[in-house]
Amino acid sequence: MASIRKRGKSYQITVSNGRDIHDRQILEMATWTPDPSKTEKQNQKALDRFAMDFEDKVKSGKYLKGEKMTYKEYSALWLSEYAEKQMERTSIERCENSLNNIILPAIGHLRLSEIQPLHLTRLYSGLAEHGYTKNGKQKPYSARTIKRIHQIISSSLNTAVYWQLIESSPCQRVKPPKVEKQADVKHFTLEQAKAFLNQLDTPYTVAHWGRTKKDGSESRKHYEEKEIPLQFKVLFHLAVFGGFRRGELAALTWDDIDFQNLTVTINKASARTKDGIITKAPKTFSSNRTVTLPASTMKLIQKYKAEQQRYRLSLGTYWKGSNYLFIQDDGKQMDISTPNKVFKKVIRIYNETHEDKLPEITLHGLRHTSATLLIAQNVDIKTVSNRLGHSETSTTMDIYAHALQKQDELAAESLGELFATKKQKKC
Q1: Do residues 13 and 30 lie in contact, with contact meaning Cβ atoms separated by under 8 Å?
Q2: Which 3 state secondary structure label does DSSP give 170?
Q3: 0.90 cut: is pTM over it?
Q4: Domain range 190-208+220-408, CATH class
Q5: Could you tell me the fold of the domain covering 71-173?
Q6: Residues 257, 325: contact at Cβ < 8 Å?
Q7: How many CB atoms lie within 10 A of CB 258?
Q8: Is pLDDT at 263 greater than 80 in this prediction?
């Protein structure tokens, strides 16, 4: 029979649940708090009913640990027993960051069985309304961020159901904000891509000021002519003509380059973690792929390989590298943040000297440029999808709907011109 003991303003109900392998008694406990709006007699009846129901659950095996484990306690268990074994390090760190900064402050104190759809709905509404503070300014969380928060909570609570800690997940009865599809993805047009690649081969001038003179007057300004290093020319050519992701480019080794068949093989990717740069398997299984490149691009890579070999010999024992294509001064793998910095620099140099400005897209925009230009050349969507490493052609179609719509319009025009031509011939 359940034991009931008053503890302050609440009651502790204890039920014996047999003995463990060491012959120690297993005790399950629950806490019940009286309703101040009810009479003492009504509360006594409610307490007796709660104790009876709790004992029935324990004896029948229906009592779930989620009724006494908080979400904060459970999230630590989920990270160690599920996430660490099923997810990539970068994904785990994103989960930890979201849990510590957003999710746990809101629902970490709740027991698993207490979390209701309304708790999550209020959490998402609060994130959208109040957001976060950055540089003294209040900014709302985007629908995409809130949806990612929902996915983390949903994944954790679905696992709790699988582990039989709770009977069902409240996430099944909550709808996160709808993420509107982007009307367009930022990329270069064909003319802009040509201008960008031409800029890579164009020397640029950097102005330098000497030290201020003793009398306080400014020294003479002198100019230095520079060029974009060859390894960045190669990297940006690979991004445009191969459509590779930043992490895939950073992870490339010379073993991945097949000069005879003009191909580059993607079988790994680099990413940043709190412990430094790691190299791992690509984003998805389908991201493992071999992509054929233009002969001109492969010649550029070959030229760079010879340059890197000469540079390596010149460093002697200072060389600390292994076999990476893109390197730091000592030969070690290039930091994954470096290409984006140089990419922005090239765009800035171009825009400072040209009236027709290049849009300030991200490095990932070169991947979008590659796909968009292929679609514009009537390359079938399956081939484009394979080159990008998408698992489904539907993913490619969703991302590049803008380019496909344009092709649909051109197809309609072509059909119209075709029939108009035939009609004129008959006349």
Answers
A1: yes
A2: helix
A3: no
A4: mainly alpha
A5: DNA polymerase; domain 1 (1.10.150)
A6: yes
A7: 14
A8: yes
